[in-house]
Each structure stands twice: as C-alpha cells, then as structure tokens.
Amino acid sequence: MRIIYDFSEHQIKQVHQLYKEAWWAKARSLEETTNCVKGSQICIGIVNDNNELIAFSRILSDFIYKAIIFDVIVCEAERGNGIGQKMMALIKNHERLKKVKHFELYCLPEMESFYSSLGFSTDIGGIKLMRCVNT
Questions:
Q1: What is the pLDDT, as a whole number, of residue 126?
Q2: In this structure, are residues 58 and 43 in contact, taking their beta carbons and an 8 Å threshold?
Q3: Is there a contact between 122 and 114 (Cβ–Cβ < 8 Å)?
C-alpha cells in the first residue's frame, strides 16, 4: 500500500468511483468531485499494489482549533481489513494537523461504534448540527 496526498486526474476519477459506492455521494458528478478534491486543504488516499485507490478522506481545518473530517470512504472490497483505522491514524497524525485541538466529523448511527473506538464522542455539550440549504 502507498499513501498519497496529491491527486492526479486519474486518481480523482478513482475518488469519484469510490463516491459512487456510497449512498451519500452517489449523485456527485466528476466535475463536483474534482472541485471538491482541489478545494480541500488536505486530501489523503490509500492506493493498493495495483495502483487502485482503495480509501479516501479530506479535511478542512484552521490547523489550531478544529479539523473537520469529510468523506471517509473505503472501497467495499477492503472494508473490515483495518483500512479505515489506518486512514484515521493518517489524519490524526498528519504533520499539518498535529496541533489541532478537536477533530470533528459526521457519521451515521451505525458508524458511531467505529469512531468511538478511535476516541470520538457524541457528548459535545449539547451542540447540535444546524444546516441551511443554499438554493
């Protein structure tokens, strides 16, 4: 396995393919995926020995107080093999994120135990997610 931080056009297409495996990202176009990857401060990919992208995540941060982790995705064939834990370790130990006080992410209820095992908690003092849809 190899870790990548810079993504070629071909690798962005592979990110797009990973998105198609996730219900929450299926509708993303290749153009949106390209803009998303290029507009994120940190992107991390894990590539297998066949040069196929098997995991991806992106992070937005102020590099002191908060880092918000987005789009943690592992290809279906590799799930359950420790790739998700490896990805989260890469994020938390990334050189530019070492001083960050709080890592935050969104997840579905069925993923709570996975993230709890990595130190994440839903106990954040009553804070609620709020959203405004840009129309």
A1: 80
A2: yes
A3: no
With a CB cutoff of 8 Å and minimum separation 6, the contacts of 120 are 103, 105
Cα separation, 73 vs 15, whole angstroms? 9
User: Rounded mean pLDDT of 2-7?
Assistant: 96
For residue range 46-71, what is the model confidence (pLDDT) as tens digits?
999 999 999 999 999 999 999 999 99
Q: Where are the domains of the chain?
A: 2-116
Residue 72 parent element (H or E)? strand 66-74
Do residues 14 and 52 touch, judged by C-beta distance below 8 A? Answer: yes
For residue 91, which of 31, 22, 41 has the smallest C-alpha distance? 41
Assigned token pair, 103 = 């890592």
Give the model confidence (pLDDT) of 88-98 as tens digits: 999 999 999 99
Cα–Cα distances in angstroms (integers) from residue 81 to residues 33, 73, 85, 86, 89, in the given order:
26, 13, 9, 10, 14
Domain at 2-116: CATH architecture: 3-Layer(aba) Sandwich (3.40)
